[in-house]
Amino acid sequence: MEPDAALSTRAVHLGRPPHEPDRPLNEPITMAATYVAGGDLEYGRYRNPTWTAFEEALGGLEGGSCLAYASGLAAVATLLDLVGPGEKVVAPRHTYLGSLAQLGDLEARGRLVAELVDVTDTAAFAAACEDAALVWLETPTNPAMEVADAPAIIAAAHAAGARVVVDNTFATPVLQRPLEWGADIVVHSVTKYVAGHSDLLMGAIVVADPALYDVLKQRRDSYGAIPGAFEAWLALRGLRTLPLRVERAQANAAELARRLGERDDVVEVRYPGFGGMLALVLDSGGRADLVQHSTRLWVYATSLGGLESSLERRRRWKSEPDTIPDGLLRLSVGIEDVDDLWADLAQALDASRG
């Protein structure tokens, strides 16, 4: 494949076996814990050909070297483990709840200091980076849908000597590639858009620096937060259609955001202008609850990024920051017909008026 091939072409072709007679078109599932010694594989906790195919594909799309993990939070934990005792991590105040929980737990145990900042205030966020060891970014943020000036924050973090991690779960490499902005690390919940079918748990880290890759690979070997071969095979199969799915979800989300903005019973629509995620704010948590229980097509679920559309009132989780409006519904827009999605959402909004 040509090195300048389009991303949609690379998504289809990266990670495949060589085009040779009698070779399979797709990398098979290698179900093995033990290998005959003397080669590169050695043991099932160190390497698996099915992981390798997935890692080649996602790493190629992000522009770095990839390591697959058992879940997105396993990948998050691996990266937070890079922070030394008492060092500071700066993160958006509206960050994925699982990441916030890990930061809070580590801070409570005296392992690190966490500073949560409004990521839309670039000057304040850059100032907080001055004595940080690690800067964590989400853009858009989950679930507030805020967009950061990532290149400016990355530059400020590097000037202060901090590493930068960007959680690219929402945007995917189809829409943004943070390593091109100078980020050191990209992290994904592969469970979401990359795999795209709501049928597996998996995470991934992508880095540009070979030395950092070696450190992370050694720690994965030691700690064992590895994916299953079947999950890696499913994730790679899902990744093949990632550009198509993102294109359709984004078109649907933009149209739904437009239509929602025309309703006088919607307080606010939060759509960053790209991607398949948006949020709408209603005047009360009670009304948002009614909506999420009244849809027939939209699925009331806490995950996202699948083929199907889902929604959730995020403040139903007691640990969600109180700066998230009580009536905020996070919408993960799927690839269904947009008119069908709108009809179902509109009837649920109408019904919730009482």
From TrEMBL:
Ranges where the record places region Disordered: 1-26
Annotated GO MF terms: transferase activity
Keywords assigned: Pyridoxal phosphate, Transferase
Cofactor(s) essential for the protein: pyridoxal 5'-phosphate
Organism lineage string: Bacteria, Bacillati, Actinomycetota, Actinomycetes, Propionibacteriales
Family per record: Belongs to the trans-sulfuration enzymes family.
Record SUPFAM superfamilies: PLP-dependent transferases (SSF53383)
InterPro entries: Cys/Met-Metab_PyrdxlP-dep_enz, PyrdxlP-dep_Trfase, PyrdxlP-dep_Trfase_major, PyrdxlP-dep_Trfase_small
Domain of life: Bacteria
Organism annotation: Nocardioides lentus
Listed name of the protein: PLP-dependent transferase
